[in-house]
Amino acid sequence: MKRLLIPMFIALIVSGPAWGVEYDCPVTHKLDGERVYSAEQLKRFQPVVKISDRGKAATLSRCSFSPSRKKVTCDSYETDKIVFDKNVKIKKYYVFSSQFDVQLYNNLLFVENNGRGTIAYGKCHVVSP
């Protein structure tokens, strides 16, 4: 069964089907030049990257708990460029205006570079189709 699922995920990542695919990517590790975020901080702020891939276009959302609003809030961005690196099988989503990118690996691991020195990573889950 695992042999069938891996090619299916690779095909989804590469092709980005016309009907789209949604990924929910909870951050399990986060660091910057000054600190490594603790498990307690990650649990408190619940950071998540969401990817809505429509093939040649995608929306990236960065979500986290806002203590002042007492709820999870998200900032969403349309990608400026999407690249699939067939050598290492990584799909890269770029948002130039916000200077950040998300890399999605074929095993659904992801890395978010916020463009200002903070790196977050974890494992995505396919939400839909």
Describe this structure in words.
With 129 residues, the chain is α+β, with helices and mostly antiparallel strands. The chain has a single domain, classed as Beta Barrel (Lipocalin), CATH 2.40.128. The chain has 2 helices and 10 strands, in the order H-E-H-E-E-E-E-E-E-E-E-E. Strands 1, 2, 3, 4, 5, 6, 7, 8, 9 and 10 form a 10-stranded antiparallel β-sheet that branches. Strand 2 and strand 3 form a beta hairpin. The longest helix has 14 residues. The radius of gyration is 15 Å and the shape is globular.
Q: Can you tag this structure with a few keywords?
A:
single chain; about 130 residues; alpha+beta; Lipocalin; 2 helices; globular
Topology:
Layout: H1 2-15, E1 21-31, H2 39-45, E2 48-53, E3 58-66, E4 71-78, E5 81-85, E6 90-95, E7 100-105, E8 109-113, E9 119-123, E10 125-128
Antiparallel strand pairs: 1-2, 1-9, 1-10, 2-3, 3-4, 5-6, 6-7, 7-8, 8-9
Can you describe this structure in just a few lines?
The chain is of the alpha+beta class and 129 residues long. It has 2 helices and 10 strands; from the N terminus they run αβαβββββββββ. It has one domain: Lipocalin, CATH 2.40.128.
Inertia-based shape: globular
CATH architecture: Beta Barrel
Q: Secondary-structure element order, as H and E?
A: HEHEEEEEEEEE
Total number of strands: 10
Q: Mind telling me the C-alpha Rg?
A: 15 Å
Structural class: alpha+beta
Proportion in β-strands: over 45%
Helical run tally: 2
- N- to C-terminal distance: 19 Å
Biggest pleated sheet? 10 strands, antiparallel
Low-confidence stretches: 8-17
Fraction of helical residues: 10-25%
CATH fold-level name: Lipocalin
Number of domains: 1
Question: Mean of residue pLDDT?
Answer: 87
CATH class: Mainly Beta
